[in-house]
Batch of 3 targets.
Target 1
Amino acid sequence: MPELLLRNARTLVTMDDAGTELSDADILIRDGVIVALGQGLATQGDTLDCAGCVVTPGLVNTHHHLYQTLTRAVPGAQDAALFGWLTTLYPIWARFTPDHMRVSALTGLAELALSGCTTSSDHLYLYPNGSRLDDTIEAAGMIGLRLHATRGAMSIGQSAGGLPPDSLVEDEAAILNDCLRVIDAFHDTTPGAMIRIGVAPCSPFSVSRELMRDAAILARDKGVMLHTHLAENDEDIAYSLAKFGCRPGDYAESLGWTGPDVWHAHCVKLDAAEIDLFARTRTGVAHCPCSNCRLASGIAPVRAMRDAGVPVGLGVDGSASNDAGNLVAEARMAMLLQRVASGPGAMSPREALRIATRGGAEVLGRGDHLGQIAPGYRADLAIWDVSGVEAAGSWDPASLLLAGPTRVRDLLVEGRRVVAEGQVVTLDLPAVLADQRRLAEALARNE
Ligand SMILES: [Zn+2]
C-alpha cells in the first residue's frame, strides 16, 4: 500500500501514557501502520489535509448486538425493563434470516463508522432460520471495520424455565461445535487482524452452568477471548442469588470467567468485592451507559472500577435498547452519568474519550496495536472537523465530548478511508438503508 500523509491536524490526541496532544501535526502512514508523527513530514504518496480538525485514535466499541438494528423503538418494548423487554422482542427476532442479519449489521456498522468507531465487537446469541455468525462477519468485511465477532448462545428455553422461546435456543454440544468452526474459519491472531472471534454464551440466565464452564475451557484451549452479560440490573442479581446461591462475580469466578481474556457487558451492579476481583484478575468491563439508562438498570460504578484498576471500555449495546449506535455520543453519556453519580469532577471529557479509544482496545486485548496514535500502531484514526457549527466557540476543541461534533469528517481503518467528507465510501449506504427499511416494515407487519 502506498503512503498516506495526514497533514496539519489542528490537534492530534495521541492517548499515550502522558496524554500528549500535538498541535499543527502530521501523521505518516505506511502499509496501514503509523510510522511517524510530527511537523513538516513529507511523502511521495497521497496526502489528506486535516487543517481545522482534531484527530483521535479510532473509537472501539466493546459491546453490541448488530442484528438488533432492525428492531429499534419497537412500541411494546419502549418502556419495559430488561426481562420484559426481552420477552417482547424474542418472537420478532425468531423470524430473522441470514438476510436480516447481514443488512442489520451493515446498517449498525455504518452508524458506528460515522461516529468514529474503527473496531467493534458483536455479540450474536441467536441463530434463527439458518443464520450464522458468518453473516455478520461478511458485513464487517464489506464496510471495512475491524470486528471482534463473538459466538453467543442460549440453551435454556421456556420449557426449561428460561426466558427465550424454545425455537431460539440451541443444543449445547452444537453450540460448542459451532464455536470451534468459526474460530478455525475466521480467528486471526496477527497484529493487524480485521476479524477475531470470541466465545460468548448470552448470560448466566440463558445457558447452563456446564456450558459456561465448557465455553471457558474451549476458549482457553483455542486462545480466544470470553464475553457475556453480567450483573446488569437488580433482577439479574436477584436471579443469581436465588438460582446459584451467590452473586454474579462469584458465579463467574467459579466457572473460569475472570481474567485478562474475559470481558463482561454492563456490570452495573458490581459490589466492592466484585470490583476488587475484576481489578485483581484484570477482567474487563464493557460499560453501556445509554442502554443502562434506557432500561433503567442503574449507573455502573465506573469511577470506582477505574480507580481500582479494572479495564473499562465502552459499548453502545444493541440498537433495541439504546436505540442509537453513536459511539462518541455514548462516550459523552459515560462522562455525564459519572458526574450525576459522583459530582462534576468524577470524569473529564478527556478521560471518557480515553475509555472510548485506548480503554476499549485494552479490553479487547488489542492495546499493543490499537487505541493510540504512535509509531507502530495500526492507522485506525477518527478525523473530527471542529470548524463547523457544533464546535463553534469552543475554547478547547480537543474536549470533543463537551461540544462535538458527533460525526466524523473522515475515518481510517488500517490506513484505508471508510468515511470521507462525512459519507461512508465503502458501501452503497442508500441501498443498504432501502433494504433495512423493507425488512423492518415487513417485520412490523408481522410478515
Ligand atoms: Zn447486550
Note: DSSP finds 14 helices and 17 strands in the chain.
Target 2
Amino acid sequence: MNLDALKREFGGEIITPSSPGYDAARRIWNAMIDRRPAAIARCTSADDVVAAVRFAGREGLHPAIRGGGHNAAGLAMVDGDLVIDVSPMKRITVDARARTAVAETGLTWGEFDRATQEHGLAVTGGLISTTGIAGLTLGGGVGWLMGRCGLTCDNTLAYDVVTADGEVVTASATSHQDLFWALKGGGGNFGVVTSITYKLHPVSTVISGMVLHPLARAREVLRFYRDFVSAGLPDELIVYAAAITGPDGTRLLALIPAYTGADLDEGERLSAPLRAFGPPVADMVQRMPYVAMQSMIDVASPYGALRSYWKSHFLRALPDEAIDTFVHHAMRCTSPRTFMIIEHAHGAAGRVAPEATAFPVRHHAFNLVIVSLWPEASDDMAQVSWTRAFYHAMQPWSAAMVYVNTLSDDDGGRVAEAYGVNYERLAEVKAKYDPSNRFRRNQNIPPAKVKSGAGLPERGSAEVRRGPAPA
Ligand SMILES: Cc1cc2nc3c(=O)[nH]c(=O)nc-3n(C[C@H](O)[C@H](O)[C@H](O)COP(=O)(O)OP(=O)(O)OC[C@H]3O[C@@H](n4cnc5c(N)ncnc54)[C@H](O)[C@@H]3O)c2cc1C
C-alpha cells in the first residue's frame, strides 16, 4: 500500500503500525477484536473521505469503515487493509424551527443528543451514549423513542455519501431514491456516509429507570411484563426487560420503562402498575432529563474494556415456555457483566410497511438480545458456548428474523435473515453503487449478478448470491 499518494491529498491523520497512536486508534468497543489494519485514515471532512475511497479503489483495497466503533462483530476494524475512520467528523447543525439536524457521522449519540437537546429536540437513538450515530442509523436504529417517532432510519431525510467510485452523492426522497431507500437500514454496504439529515421531535423531561426484582422471581415478573406490554401501550411508553447482575453480585430481573410523552402525570399513571407489581426490591424510576435517560446504562458497557459476543433474534411470541427457557439460561449465566434483554417494540416503528425502508422487521414485538460480556480471554470459549446454547434453546419461538446491528462476526449467513423481503432489492442497489463489492467489511450484501448483455436487472428479477446457510 503506497500511502504517499494518499498523504498528498488527505487533510486528516494517517495512522500506521509505526505511529504512536496506533493501538488507541484500532481499539473499538469489543475488546475481543484485535485487528491490525495496515493504515487508519482519520478523516476530517468529506474531501478526506473522497481521497481515501479513491485511494482504496486505485490500490484494490477493501476498506473497513469506522464510525463509533461499537459494532460487536468488530466491523470497524480489518487486518492488513485500510480503515476509513470518520470518528473525527463531528459537526452538527440544528435547525430548531424546521426541527432538523445535519450531523456528521463521527458523532456519538451522547454528542448528538446534547446538541439537539439544547433545542428540546431528539430523534430515536441508542441506549448507550458512546454508540456511533453512523452504524446505528445505517442499520435501522431502535431505541426508547421508537414507539413515538419510529426507528432512527424512519427519521432520516438525506444522506451525503461517497460511493465506491469516489463520487459524492446526496440520497434523499428526491435524489438517488433507490440509494435513499437502501440506506434506511441497509448498513454500510453502499458507500461512506459523511453526514445524515434527521427529522427531530420535541422531547425534554422523561420518566425512566429500573424496577428490580430477584432473578428467582423472573418467571412471574416476565409473565406480568409480557401481559403488560401486550395489552396495548400508548406510543409514548416503551418497556424493556433484562436479566442483569447488580453491583453486589445479586442476580436481578429489571423492568425498564421509558415514557417520552409530554404529559408526565399520564406517564406516572401508565407506569404505576409496572412499579407496583411484586413488590420490587428496588424502584429507581423517576423523572429525568432526556440525556440522563440516554446514558443511564452506560456503566453496563464500558468502551473497549470487556470482551463480547452477541446472539439475537426476534421472537414470534413470548409464551410461558419461552419465558421458562429464558430464565433457565439466565440462571446459569456465569459472567456478572452479561445481560440478556427483551426489547418490546410497538407504535410508530410498527406502522411502517416492511418494504417501505430496507429495515423489514415491523411486525414482531419482542427482540431477544443476549449480550455476553467478560474480562478474561481465558473465558472466551465458555462464554461463547453459553451464549450459543441459550440462543439455540430459544429457536422454537424465533421469528427467523434478526436486527442486522446485533449480528456477530460468525453470523454472516444470517444477513438475508435480517433483510427478508428486501434482500434482493438491496442486492440490486448494491450492484448499482458498489458493483465490485469494494465495501465488503460489513454485514455484506453482495451485488446482484448482472446477466451478461443486460443492464442492471429489473427490481425482483435479480439473480442474487446469498451467503451460506446460518450455522
Ligand atoms: C453496548 C451497545 C449498545 C447498543 N445499543 C443499541 C441500541 O440501543 N439501538 C440500536 O439500534 N443499536 C444498538 N447497538 C448496536 C449498534 O447499532 C451497532 O453496534 C452499530 O454498528 C454501532 O454503530 P457505530 O458507528 O458505533 O459502529 P462501528 O463499529 O463504527 O461501525 C459498524 C459498521 O457500520 C458501518 N458504518 C459505520 N460508519 C459508517 C459510515 N460513516 N458510512 C457507512 N457505513 C458506516 C460500517 O459497515 C461499519 O463496519 C448497540 C451496540 C452496543 C455495543
Note: The longest helix spans residues 46-59.
Target 3
Amino acid sequence: MEIASSLAAAARGFHARGWLMGTSGNLSAVVQREPLQLAMSPSGVDKGELKPEQLLSIDENARVVNGRPGKPSDETLLHLRLVRDRGAGAVLHTHSVWNTILSDFYAGTGGMAIEGYEMLKGLQGVPTHEHSEWLPIVENSQDMTALAETVAQTLNEHKGAHGFLVRRHGLYTWGETVAQAKRHIEIYEFLLETIGRTLHIRGVHAGV
Ligand SMILES: [Zn+2]
C-alpha cells in the first residue's frame, strides 16, 4: 500500500534527523473517508525501523480493522480529531529537541508567532515571508479525550494555524497528503531550530 510505504519512509527519515527518537511520535494518513479508514503507526515500535506492514488500519472509533497485532498509539484520538475537524489527509507528530524546548519556553503566551522567514512559504497557502504564523501551544495531558477537546477548541480560535505544540511534548502538523504533512514537519522543525538557536546565540552575546 502506497500510503503505508510513504508513512514508514517519513518515519525513518524523521528518526534519522533526531525528531522521532526511540518509540516517540506517531504518523497517520487517511486511506478512505466513507467509512473512515486511517493508516496509523502502532504504539511501542521504534520509528527508525517502522515497516509498511506494521501500519494499523483503524476506523473512526480507533478500532483496529485489519486484524494486525499491535495497538494504535494513545494519541490516535488527536489524529482522528484533526482528520475530522481540519479535513486532514495525513497527520504527523514529532518529538524533537527544539520543538520540546520551545513548547515550554513560549508556553506562558499560549503560542509563538513565527514571522519574516522565507521558509514560512513552505506552509500551504503562505505566499510570502511577510507572514505571521501563530503556532498555538496546549498543556500536555495523559487524558487523550481531554487533550483532543483542548486542541479542537484552540484550533477553532486559530483557524489559520498549520500545526500546534504540546508543552514539553512535541509538534503536530497535518496536510492534505502525506507529502504535504511531511513538508510541514520539515518547515516547522527548521523554523523552530532556527528560532531556538537565535535565542541561544543572542543570550550568549548578551552574556546571559
Ligand atoms: Zn507524542
Note: The mean pLDDT is 95.
